[in-house]
Amino acid sequence: MTSPLVDAFFTVSEPGARETGFVVRGGRVARFDWGTGRVDGGARSLERQWPALPAAFRTGFDAAMVTSDPWTMVFRGAQCLLLNPLDGQVAEVSTIAARLPGLPQPFPQGIDAALAGGPGDEVYLFAGGQCARYDLRAMTVLETAPLERIWTGLGQHAPAFTAGIDAAVRHPSRGTFHFFRGDAFTRGTLATRTVTDAARPVDESTWPGLLPVFAPGFAYVQVGWGIDVIGLDGDRLVQTLDIEAHSDSTAALQTSPDRRLLYVYHHLRRVCVDTTTRRVVAELGYTQPEQPVNGVCFSPDGSLVHGAVDHWDQDGLFFLDTFRTGTTERTRRVELRAGDLFAALSEPSGGAEATGSSIRAGFCPPVASPDGRFVYLSAVLDGQGAVVEVDVQAGRMRQTFRIPDRSEVRALAVSPDGTHVHAGAGSVVTFDVRNGAVVRQGILPGPTALAVQPGGGDLYCLPWDGKEGVLVADPLTHTVRRRIPVGGSGGPGSPHAIAFDYGGLRAYISDDHSYAVAVVDTETYDMVRAIPMREGMRPMSIAVGPY
User: Fold this and answer.
1) 77: phi > 0 → left, psi -120 to 50 → alpha, else beta; which?
2) What is the pLDDT along the chain (547 residues), one digit of tens a residue?
């Protein structure tokens, strides 16, 4: 049997009627949002999530079940305790034998999985190929039998599961249960204790986020003429992809939302790589006078990819192209013409008339709004930097925001609620896209890269001058919350590009001067290690994924 993907899985009710699952694997835990049907955020250490846990429970849970919401009974070896996962309280640390008297062997020595939700106060405990029905109120065993005898249909639909399961969880609203074993799961109806579904793999189509959130992952680093793939479980070089990326771009490498596709930008083309096989699956080539401009952005579900294209024969025209991810199928092209962009300026600079004819795409990758409706691109209008908002659903340009100090935009980021766009120019400028107002400018220095931490909301600014390390700022006030030195051999370093892991708990930052990638803990704002590049080569653009 393959190693368990899930060691324990339990669900509690949070304020606002939100049902949140907690998935435990090894010494880490991730939240599962039953409303969206996917993992929410990153995988934190058990010790950091619940500091009051005794030492034995910090390295993992064997099983867990909610007995009085949110109080959860947690099992580890022969021990058990009660945990309130919402506030971290721990109570009644005991042994299984003392807590649940009457259980036959091997249950007192350890429980593999546990499931509440039976009639009355009945719960189900699993050890090897045996299942015990237990009444928590009467504190007595109701029945002990092989799994296939208590769970009708298990032998038929998931025969391997009759030897034992790793975890069990009840869906909070559908009356169903899920059993996990190795890298597979099955499902059934709890009221009748009937397994109804054949065992299926745990993957992105069945449990979105569950695989990548616990995977050690890989860093894809643009180094020299190739892309180094570094295994993050030991910071070892595992492969070099013979794919050339644009040397000056901080966003030449970008991954799709599920991290299964890596897009590589070259000044003549964009190449799509399947990260599970590390093979090219699509190449978006352009012929003169058209030329791709920098990196790409994705729709929230990852089905579409957007990128800017310049037209060198016409000074008043460029495009936003949309493709189906992983293919060469272009689904839409939006023309961006000088007359429209100047007419759509939200506020002409200094009250000047909004007219002009010279435009081109800015050298900065686009970003998409959280709902996927809008894409924001950098542009240069008569030599002045601007941000263009395109409604990709309607297929038209909507409005243009001019940079007050006229400098070109080198980086873009969008707030998690989609109401603000951050533009890195001579300084960081934040626009309210609802009314075009400049919310803040002139506080944060001009950056090589900007990024909003997934799930956290901090604005990460990598200053252009390379003397301040990484600045972590409030996205609206631009107040610097932390200044993180990222020099691989000490000092502030010269940060160039940034990428976050799947849950946003680690930031990976290429450092020009020390020829290393700095790894930053986004909860403590500390650089936890530096990954040196091969042969002292300079790291440029970077992407991170589980595959």
Assistant:
1) left
2) 678 999 999 999 988 878 999 999 999 999 999 999 999 999 999 999 999 999 999 999 999 999 999 999 999 999 999 999 999 999 999 999 999 999 999 999 999 999 998 778 999 999 999 999 999 999 999 999 999 999 999 999 999 999 999 999 999 999 999 999 999 999 999 999 999 999 999 999 999 999 999 999 999 999 988 999 999 999 999 999 999 998 888 999 999 999 999 999 998 999 999 999 999 999 998 988 999 999 999 999 999 999 999 988 777 889 999 999 999 999 999 999 888 878 877 654 444 444 556 788 998 999 999 999 999 999 999 889 999 999 999 999 999 999 999 999 999 999 999 999 999 999 999 999 999 999 999 999 999 999 999 988 899 999 998 778 999 999 999 999 999 999 877 789 999 999 999 999 999 999 988 899 999 999 999 999 999 999 889 999 999 999 9
Tell me how far apart the alpha carbons of residues 145 and 162 are, in angstroms, rounded to a whole number: 11
Question: Can you name the residues that pair with 336 across neighbouring β-strands?
Answer: 318
Check: CB of residue 40 under 8 Å from CB of residue 32.
yes
> What letter represents residue 232's amino acid?
L
Structure tokens at 6: 């899930």
